[in-house]
Amino acid sequence: MKFQTEKEILLNPLQQIIGAVEKKQTMPALSNVLIRTSENSLTLTATDLEIELVSQINIIVDEPGEITVPARKLLDIYKALPNEAIIKFSVVDGKARIQSGRSRFTLTTLPANDFPSLDTINSIYEFEIPQNILRDIIDKTAFAMAQQDVRYYLNGLMLELSANYLRAVATDGHRLAYCQKETNADIADIKQVILPRKGVLELVRLLGDTKDSVKIILGSNHLQVEFDGFKLTSKLIDGRFPDYNRVMPTGGDNILRVDRDQLRQALMRASILSNEKYRGIRLLLENNLIKLQAQNPDQEEADIEQEVDYSGDDIEIGFNVNYLLDVLNVTNSDIVQATLSDSNSSFLLTYPDQTDCKYVIMPMRL
After folding, report:
1. Do 241 and 262 sit in the same domain of this protein?
2. Do residues 294 and 271 lie in contact, with contact meaning Cβ atoms separated by under 8 Å?
3. 311 and 209: one domain?
4. What pLDDT is stored for residue 236 in this prediction?
5. With contact defined as beta carbons under 8 Å apart, do 222 and 122 qualify?
6. HEC profile for the chain?
7. Does some domain include residue 152?
8. How far apart are CA 45 and CA 232, in angstroms?
């Protein structure tokens, strides 16, 4: 194998796929990147057996071939070389040689046959959606995913596809985030899949704020996303996601409307003296007034008042301040609306100018 490129041509694809390289690998090949070259293209592949990232670029190749090399070392070498550098890559006697100017590096390799790959996807549904729409729906929900929950089906993002919409729902059992966008998928029924946490985080890292389309392929056990010469394949979580419709509060007639940024700043001030472990804050609602109270084990206290638009019942409720801040940080809307039934019920957060997203937060005892 032999080829040469400018630094940036290979550096960007390496940075794209590095997220799939396993740091604590059980197989030596999982710490490597697979490099495949044909006459006029080069393909980089990385996997941890849960997700697989593939990037393809068009270059002129002197000698086609395939080999695997240590991914992070290769990336670090490309990062360290001068900008605008021309970098020569070759494989000689089972070693990868990288040369640029007076800098020379030799890396160990493993045969391409040792590199594992995910199973081939048997497509069930395929559809396209703009990158910015897919990124937005993930940004507004992924924060509510569980982390290492024994209920493994919560450690991911549920995507629900129909002919008219794409929904994303995430919950960790204490809060729920829901967002829906219109689509034109050519399917007859409703399909639900659960994308694991790592696949979600890698996908949102790679998506751009552009209207260019991405192609999504749903298989029986995998989801694949293709765009801009790049492909992400992720295994799906085999489980049944909770019925999110049953979690949505209904019938609450106590409605609070408040400036989002002012509420966010008030919560941040109150959170300074909240319990560092449980992050609990007491919220008291009165006529056109909200009071935020926090206390920690050192008997330190915070008491914050904020004028709001509220004329419902007097309510006192406790909640995790981080959960509410997460919701307030995923949008630029000016006004946030909270709907409550009483002090013991979960409450619904929405944005009047973005009716496609809803958030539910469970109360906590203080």
Report:
1. no
2. yes
3. no
4. 96
5. no
6. CEEEEEHHHHHHHHHHHHHHCCCCCCCHHHHEEEEEECCCCEEEEEECCCEEEEEEECCCEEECEEEEEEHHHHHHHHHHCCCCCEEEEEEECCEEEEEECCEEEEECCECHHHCCCCCCCCEEEEEEEEHHHHHHHHHCCHHHCCCCCCCHHHCEEEEEECCCEEEEEEECCCEEEEEEEECCCCCCCCEEEEEEHHHHHHHHHHCCCCCCEEEEEEECCEEEEEECCEEEEEECCCCCCCCHHHHCCCCCCEEEEEEHHHHHHHHHHHHCCCCCCCCEEEEEEECCEEEEEEECCCCCEEEEEEECECCCCCEEEEEEHHHHHHHHCCCCCCEEEEEECCCCCCEEEEECCEEEEEEEECCCCC
7. yes
8. 10
Residue 297 structural domain: 248-361
Per-residue pLDDT tens digits of the chain, which is 366 residues long: 999 999 999 999 999 999 999 777 778 899 999 999 998 999 999 999 999 999 999 999 999 999 999 999 999 999 999 998 999 999 999 999 999 999 999 999 999 999 998 877 887 888 899 999 999 999 999 999 999 999 999 999 999 998 889 999 999 999 999 999 998 877 778 899 999 999 999 999 999 999 999 999 998 899 999 998 899 999 999 999 999 999 999 888 899 999 999 999 999 999 999 998 899 999 999 999 999 999 999 999 999 999 999 999 999 999 999 999 999 999 999 999 999 999 999 999 999 999 999 999 999 987
| Structural domain ending residue among the three candidates 198, 228, 246 | 246
Sheet of 2-6, strands arranged across: 61-63, 2-6, 86-92, 95-100, 103-107
pLDDT tens digits, one per residue of 325-343: 999 999 999 999 999 999 9
In a domain, 366, yes or no: no
This prediction's pTM: 0.92
Q: Are residues 150 and 161 in the same domain?
A: yes
Last residue of a domain, one of 61, 88, 114: 114
Give the total number of structural domains in the chain: 3
CATH of the domain at 179: 3.10.150.10
Whether 353 maps to a domain, the answer reads yes
Residue pair 44/14 in contact by the 8 Å Cβ criterion? yes
